[in-house]
Amino acid sequence: PVAPPPLFSALAREASAGAPRAVWFPLPAGSCAAFPSPPVNMAAASGRCRLIWAAAAALVLTLDAAFVEDLDDSFKDNRKDDVWLVDFYAPWCGHCKKLEPVWNEVGIEIRSSGSPVKVGKMDATSYSSIASEFGVRGYPTIKLLKGDLAYNYRGPRTKDDIIEFANRVAGPLIRPLPSQQMFEHVHKRHRVLFLYVGGESPLKEKYIEVASELIVYTYFFSASEEVLPEYVTLPELPAVVVFKDGTYFVYDEYEDGDLSSWINRERFQGYLNVDGFTLYELGDTGKLVAIAIIDDKNSSAEHTRLKSVIQDVAKDYRDHFHRNFQFGHMDGNDYINSLLMDDLTIPTVVVLNTSNQQYFLPDRRIESTEDLVQFINNILDGTVEAQGGDGFLQRIKRIIYDAKSTVVSVFKSSPLLGCFLFGLPLGVISIMCYGICTADTNGGVEENETSKKEIGDRELTDEGSEEEQEQENKEKPAELSDGEHGQKHIFDKKKD
């Protein structure tokens, strides 16, 4: 199939959005024969017009299906010659249904751009063996399949982010920059830019190996020393350089350790606007995350000052803290409250350890960069006590907190629904408990009556006949008195 003209791509985007549109089709030159001027036969012209419109409508309705292929079990054997971007979904999954219109737009955009990437989707519940082979554990799962490699997408589920991921991973691992003009162009487009400088070397082999692993997160480039701007000074060649935050930093094996760990730490800017997804991504870096919790809409001096303080520390103390800390700010405290299971008063500063869910809070207000630096140094030397964590008690607390939050949110959004969801089960449980208690009471009464009856029967049986009693009295005269006393004692008990 050939990529459609831009007009039909636009129509497909409108169709995937579900909005009806009235569209004017400008016919190309030379097509006026379909509409004779002056019209000789208006009925014939009208019929041909209807045919054209019907064909155009059919094309628009089938564009989505043409750009996103439904995959089956034959996909496993036929995929290796192409690059595939696949959405593994479940029909009942709400997140999958939300992704579907975005996925249709991704298919349209990639096909119309001439990209070699093919876009498909697979029902992972119907073809569970294939999904398991590709390591699908949840829904939806987006993977780019390139030869024998499968790359997981973990970014935001937006059209632009997914397409950018597909184009990055489908292309070459290392993109060469042949000129200084090309370097400047790429440098403007990327906030964080990794560059290998030099010829063939063991460092380049390691760089390629790391790129094959981390291409899902960022681009990797290579260039000769002549391509670099004059302000860049390298101590030796070959070298790996990262350009970010308006400057550059050179990888040092002795100080920075493993190249993969260094690139994973440096792939973020020094200061970030942190949200839930970014915080999740920062967990892979192994860094503590120092966040100013503020209200972006609040322009008061206190909020602005705290944001400036953490920005200054991120910039001016990079050499001291960049290996252990990531800095940023977060708008609002709703997300951080759910994470910490506590209500934080903003503005404030919190330091998170995303690897074990511990956090650190200052014991006094942060008024200046000196206060923040002192607080961070105290964390490093262990004088600040860590709170939270992922221990057993914290997990129990998390379960209770999540259950409470769920109940409160349901009642806030829909009180009637909350009463139905939680009141009905409680009512059923109460009725069951009442029935159980009632059944036990009646059973106990019946059991007492049965026991009494059995005791009476035994007493009647044990009494025997008069002759047997006289015989026993003759044989055991000494015990006769005791028996009489015993019977009298039993009789007195019954009487009482």
Automatic annotation (TrEMBL):
<dbReference type="Pfam" id="PF13848">
    <property type="entry name" value="Thioredoxin_6"/>
</dbReference>
<keyword id="KW-0325">Glycoprotein</keyword>
<dbReference type="GO" id="GO:0003756">
    <property type="term" value="F:protein disulfide isomerase activity"/>
</dbReference>
<keyword id="KW-0472">Membrane</keyword>
<dbReference type="InterPro" id="IPR036249">
    <property type="entry name" value="Thioredoxin-like_sf"/>
</dbReference>
<dbReference type="GO" id="GO:0005789">
    <property type="term" value="C:endoplasmic reticulum membrane"/>
</dbReference>
<keyword id="KW-0413">Isomerase</keyword>
<dbReference type="GO" id="GO:0009986">
    <property type="term" value="C:cell surface"/>
</dbReference>
<comment type="function">
    <text>Probable disulfide isomerase, which participates in the folding of proteins containing disulfide bonds. May act as a dithiol oxidase. Acts as a regulator of endoplasmic reticulum-mitochondria contact sites via its ability to regulate redox signals.</text>
</comment>
<dbReference type="Pfam" id="PF00085">
    <property type="entry name" value="Thioredoxin"/>
</dbReference>
<dbReference type="InterPro" id="IPR017937">
    <property type="entry name" value="Thioredoxin_CS"/>
</dbReference>
<comment type="similarity">
    <text>Belongs to the protein disulfide isomerase family.</text>
</comment>
<keyword id="KW-0676">Redox-active center</keyword>
<feature type="region of interest" description="Disordered">
    <location>
        <begin position="444"/>
        <end position="496"/>
    </location>
</feature>
<keyword id="KW-0732">Signal</keyword>
<dbReference type="InterPro" id="IPR013766">
    <property type="entry name" value="Thioredoxin_domain"/>
</dbReference>
<keyword id="KW-0812">Transmembrane</keyword>
<keyword id="KW-1015">Disulfide bond</keyword>
<protein>
    <recommendedName>
        <fullName>Protein disulfide-isomerase TMX3</fullName>
        <ecNumber>5.3.4.1</ecNumber>
    </recommendedName>
</protein>
<feature type="compositionally biased region" description="Basic and acidic residues">
    <location>
        <begin position="471"/>
        <end position="496"/>
    </location>
</feature>
<feature type="domain" description="Thioredoxin">
    <location>
        <begin position="49"/>
        <end position="171"/>
    </location>
</feature>
<dbReference type="InterPro" id="IPR052250">
    <property type="entry name" value="PDI_TMX3"/>
</dbReference>
<keyword id="KW-1133">Transmembrane helix</keyword>
<keyword id="KW-0256">Endoplasmic reticulum</keyword>
<feature type="compositionally biased region" description="Basic and acidic residues">
    <location>
        <begin position="449"/>
        <end position="461"/>
    </location>
</feature>
